Amino acid sequence: MTENNNIVFTPERLAKVQEIIARYPEGRQKSALLPVLHLAQEQFAWMSQGVMDYVASLLSIKPVEVYEVASFYTMFHLEPVGKHVIEYCRTGPCVLMGGEEVFSHLQQKLGIKKGETTADGLFTLKEVECLAACGWGPCFQIREKYYMHLNNQKVDEIIEELSK
Amino acid sequence: MEDIKPTMFKVTVDGVEVEVAPGTTIMQAARQIGPEVAPPAMCYYEPLKGSGGKCRACLVKVAAGSAKDPRPMPKLVASCITPVQDGMVVENFTNPQVVEARKGVVEFLLLNHPLDCPVCDQAGECHLQDFAFENGVSTTRYEEERRTFEKEDIGPYIQLHMTRCVLCYRCVYTADQITDGRVHGVMGRGDHAEISTYIGRAIDNDFSGNVIDVCPVGALTDKTYRFKNRVWFSKPVDAHCDCDKCSGKVQLWYRGDEVIRVTARKNEWGEVKEFICNTCRFEKKKTSDWVIEGPTKVNRASVISANKYGANLIKKPDFALKLAESQYKKIDDSRPYVNEMAEIKQSEDYKALMQKNESFFKK
Amino acid sequence: MSLKILTEHCSTPGIETLEVYRKKGGYTAVEKALKKMTPDEVVEEVKKSGVRGRGGAGFPMGMKWSFLAKPEGVPRYLVCNADESEPGTFKDHYLMKTIPHLLVEGMIISSYALGANKSFIYVRGELMYVIRILEKAIEEAKAAGFLGKNILGSGYDLELVVQPGGGAYICGEETALLESLEGKRGNPRNKPPFPAVKGLYQSPTVVNNVESIATVSWIVNNGGEAYAAVGVGKSTGTKLISASGHINKPGVYEIELGLSCDEFLNSDEYCGGVRTGHRLKAVVAGGSSVPIVPGSLFLKNANGEDRLMSYESLSDGGFATGTMLGSGGFIVFDETACIVRNTWNFSRFYEHESCGQCSPCREGTGWMQKVLNRIEHGKGSMSDIDLLVDVSKKIEGNTICPLGDAAAWPVASAIRHFRDEFEWHIKHPLEATKPGAVYAGAVLV
């Protein structure tokens, strides 16, 4: 799994990396790791070893320092993912609001289970813990967008919209 | 000129008083008194900066914080990272709460540990064996499946058995502090955290072999020594050589005339005195490579000298042992509904349910 | 209408912009603090206010500020904890997305009071859209001269940085948060040293919750005594409560501390009562970590006296009959909720979120989850109940950080108050595993 070729940030993102590093005191560029990993996921979709090694080189830290961090935080995808990663909340308050029914409907609708990707590569389902939207649940998140007060019908509409 | 002596702190551990320098931890103060009051340590390792605080094996009760403020500390504290105060009173093996908590830690560490001691190269010098033997109970209450990991090859010299790992982080500190470039670390989190080089990067570094010596269990073992012998059948001798990378001070482990293993020398707490290089450890396996100093002085309590686990390796206060026996709460499962339950569990419906829910029980 | 210190202007259109925020009196507190008050005077007002940390622990904020070490020549940091991840809690999310300048203004004043020239807002990474809102607010504040060099000619400089997390509940623990902010795994640190002495980059650091910092503008404008006059006893001021679960009106509400629990649950100004047509079974009053109590023990304490929404009243009776205000994550369960299933759900959360550093939490949370999972899915035995209690006791108090306690309490309290429900699950696996099946013997209000 070495795909080091072509792992380079766009010029805009490279400039952003420099801007982020400058936020921290001299010698503390490692603090930029999480924001830069988010940038990397934005561009490369998931954290291949090549991507993580690239991030390490940008921040002058050891590759292992990136691996141990990327694997600690649940937002980073360590496997390839579909175009839309649906991260739905499985925690208590969303369950009380009917989350289990809605998300089992979502799985049926897409024909996949949690952790899987649809055959057309369009959707990946990821089960996550509380998204801090308990009163507005059930909820899921796709990239930066929160979808709240979900029910089966809304789920259908969202999937159809994104399938276009 | 007269030496200016620093003010010494008086500390009491399990009723024994000792004077130590300010800044000393409870663990170190207790070790100064001796093994009969020294708390066990599964993660703390004096030569490694920043180690400790994680395994909770060394929890103690501070019954009096200091002479100035004799209030007890509300929670048990990790003795390896808690500095003493003047007049502090510490209870270790003499405190029921400590004995109970420690039994819990033994149980937690053994939950997912494979108990494959008969085929583990660490058996006999395993700190988890010692810890469990001296502080635990002999039964398990764990009915769930044990955690497993995908096997990972981390190079020609070191064998990684992740299932045995207790996540003490010692090897990570070692790689950070002793080698010039750490390539392994702790990946993932929670009960699926694992020591890994990630995507198979081999550990190749002149000092990488030291992770074997610091590992308290059989998670990191010497590949060149694999299945060669049980440690209690081998004879350690101290030896040295002129090495341009390390001190060259080692222990040779003999089976008959054959050097089957080379390790660093350890102090009475099982801590490496001087780290050694991979050339000394893995490549000098002939007696002629070394200047022999003589047999290693082996701790009386060690299986290496005892040749087996005896009943009174280290004398613990009777009180603690009796308490451990009496406190272990046998779970009462003898209530009347047990029969009724047995019937349900025989039924076809119940079998069908178990089949349906099977996926929930497998992880 | 009760006093709204934080949310008064939340429904004003455009309040997320500097322009509208200033029209509503925003940033006057920055002017007052920087031009007319010394840093120590600000600290003094916050101390007088008695405001307590709103992240869950409830430690007096002014006291926390006064512990900050101030060695010469060493930078000091203020870090805002916006890693809100406790199940049931979404107030900071609401506050930041609705009125971001309230936090920015609070950060400026608090940083000035503590002598920090670089301050951070650590926001959970999932809330990237909120991070963009905050960054925009910071840009606006900077353009208006409230941030940057020589703010309002006072000679005071401040840079404000928004830092995203990466998905980890544990980073809400202050030392884990600092580790994360340094670009590391979110492993909580051993204490001492405390952050007030050695925090971010080994420098003295204060970590405060979003809601706590958001109160500072009002305290500066109106005085600490005015703040302390609101509320009851040592529970001064107002508190945001995130209300979710089986109620008619889930949402974020600002209450004056000391409001009766009955009024909060049942009045139309707040939750609007349990879902119409249903009855109250249980309440988690302060986020998933605090003990769950039956509805009756939420409304009245063991002596039959009305309970109030305050730190003291909710914890009255200790863990035997009381609970905690925590972070104000208020979750209501009606008779359709299964306590066993919910306990398993919470337990799974803590297993998932344990950092794995110390053994009681790493192993214990997984163990409890697996046992609860078996009970929930029809494979429990009676001894499992005692086992769960014992395991929870062996975790509680023995871990590096409070996540261990947070994992132990929900299990211990659920068994304490709903033991018969667990026993029913175990004794009647065929009935209990039917979809939607709930124990019929629960005492409802």
TrEMBL record, chain A:
UniProt-listed SUPFAM superfamilies: Thioredoxin-like
One Pfam assignment: 2Fe-2S_thioredx
GO MF annotations in UniProt: 2 iron, 2 sulfur cluster binding; metal ion binding; NADH dehydrogenase activity
Positions of transmembrane segments: none
CC cofactor note: Binds 1 [2Fe-2S] cluster.
Binding site for [2Fe-2S] cluster: C89, C94, C130, C134
Keywords for this protein: 2Fe-2S, Iron, Iron-sulfur, Metal-binding
Keyword Transmembrane: no
Cofactor: [2Fe-2S] cluster
Keyword DNA-binding in record: no
Entry similarity comment: Belongs to the complex I 24 kDa subunit family.
Entry-linked NCBIfam families: nuoE_fam
Protein name per UniProt: NADH dehydrogenase subunit E
Organism: Emticicia aquatilis
Gene that encodes it: nuoE
TrEMBL record, chain B:
Cross-referenced InterPro entries: 2Fe-2S_ferredoxin-like_sf, 2Fe-2S_ferredoxin-type, NADH_UbQ_OxRdtase_ferredoxin, NADH_UbQ_OxRdtase_Gsu_4Fe4S-bd, Prok_molybdopt-oxidoreductase
Name of the molecule in the record: NADH dehydrogenase subunit G
Matching SMART domains: NADH-G_4Fe-4S_3
Organism in which the protein naturally occurs: Emticicia aquatilis
Residue ranges occupied by any 4Fe-4S His(Cys)3-ligated-type domain in the UniProt entry: 97-136
Keywords per UniProt: 2Fe-2S, 4Fe-4S, Iron, Iron-sulfur, Membrane, Metal-binding, NAD, Translocase
Entry similarity comment: Belongs to the complex I 75 kDa subunit family.
The protein's required cofactors: [2Fe-2S] cluster; [4Fe-4S] cluster
Gene3D superfamilies assigned: 3.10.20.740, 3.30.70.20
Cited Pfam families: Fer2_4 (PF13510), Fer4_Nqo3 (PF22117), NADH-G_4Fe-4S_3 (PF10588)
Stretch forming the signal peptide: none
Alphabetized GO MF terms: 2 iron, 2 sulfur cluster binding; 4 iron, 4 sulfur cluster binding; metal ion binding; oxidoreductase activity
Location of this chain's protein in the cell: Membrane
2Fe-2S ferredoxin-type domain residues: 7-96
Cellular component GO terms held in the UniProt record: membrane
Primary localization: membrane
SUPFAM superfamilies registered for this protein in UniProt: 2Fe-2S ferredoxin-like, 4Fe-4S ferredoxins
TrEMBL record, chain C:
Domain NADH-ubiquinone oxidoreductase 51kDa subunit iron-sulphur binding: 340-385
Catalysed reactions, as listed in the record: a quinone + NADH + 5 H(+)(in) = a quinol + NAD(+) + 4 H(+)(out)
SUPFAM superfamilies associated with the record: Nqo1 FMN-binding domain-like, Nqo1 middle domain-like, Nqo1C-terminal domain-like
UniProt keywords, alphabetically: 4Fe-4S, Flavoprotein, FMN, Iron, Iron-sulfur, Metal-binding, NAD, Quinone, Translocase
Domain of life: Bacteria
Cofactor: [4Fe-4S] cluster; FMN
Enzyme class label: translocase
InterPro entries: NADH-UbQ_OxRdtase_51kDa_CS, NADH-UbQ_OxRdtase_suF, Nuo51_FMN-bd, Nuo51_FMN-bd_sf, Nuop51_4Fe4S-bd, Nuop51_4Fe4S-bd_sf
One Pfam family named in its UniProt record: Complex1_51K
Molecular function GO terms recorded: 4 iron, 4 sulfur cluster binding; FMN binding; metal ion binding; NAD binding; NADH dehydrogenase (ubiquinone) activity; quinone binding
4Fe-4S is among the record's keywords: yes
Catalytic activity, EC: 7.1.1.-
NCBIfam families documented for this protein: nuoF_fam (TIGR01959), PRK13596.1 (NF010120)
Protein's job: NDH-1 shuttles electrons from NADH, via FMN and iron-sulfur (Fe-S) centers, to quinones in the respiratory chain.
Similarity section: Belongs to the complex I 51 kDa subunit family.
Protein name: NADH-quinone oxidoreductase subunit F
Source organism: Emticicia aquatilis
